[in-house]
Design a protein that fits this description.
Order of helices and strands: EEHHEHHEEHH
Shape: globular
CATH superfamily: Winged helix-like DNA-binding domain superfamily/Winged helix DNA-binding domain
Number of domains: 1
Radius of gyration: 17 Å
Helix content: 40-55%
Strand order of the largest sheet: 3-5-4
Structural class: alpha+beta
CATH architecture: Orthogonal Bundle
Number of helices: 6
CATH topology: Arc Repressor Mutant, subunit A
Strand content: 5-15%
Distance between the termini: 34 Å
């Protein structure tokens, strides 16, 4: 029961694996937000700060900053010492103008999952 998970020949302790699973929800949600807003497209010409991205998307700058920081923490975007965000190879897959773009899938998958999950405890779906 306490066997570590093996990924690429590296032992991952069960608590780390569980944290990754738990974090999967917020990562998925943050990816949906970034894809829906077209953040990767806005960064294709170079790094921008969250205020510029918020202005371009009509979003609340501090809230968008938190989403971008969360995605930077898992390697989707890169944040520099001036608080500007840039594309990484991972983020580039969310650009709408590249072959094999995953932007539409990120948007559609989040919508599909939200509708397909059962309502638990009578709360809003």
């Amino acid at each position: 029961m306490s066997e570590p998970n093996r990924t690429a020949g590296v032992d991952i302790p069960p608590p780390v694996t569980m944290l990754q699973m738990i974090a999967g929800f917020w990562v998925s949600r943050a990816l949906y937000i970034a894809a829906k807003l077209g953040i990767a497209d806005l960064l294709k010409d170079g790094p921008k700060n969250s205020e510029a991205l918020a202005q371009a998307t009509g979003m609340h700058a501090p809230s968008l900053y938190r989403v971008l920081r969360a995605l930077a923490s898992v390697g989707v975007f890169a944040e520099d010492e001036h608080g500007r965000f840039a594309l990484t190879p991972l983020a580039a897959t969310l650009r709408s103008d590249v072959p094999g773009s995953l932007r539409a899938f990120a948007i559609a998958e989040r919508r599909t999952r939200r509708r397909s999950l059962p309502r638990m405890g009578g709360g809003p779906a």
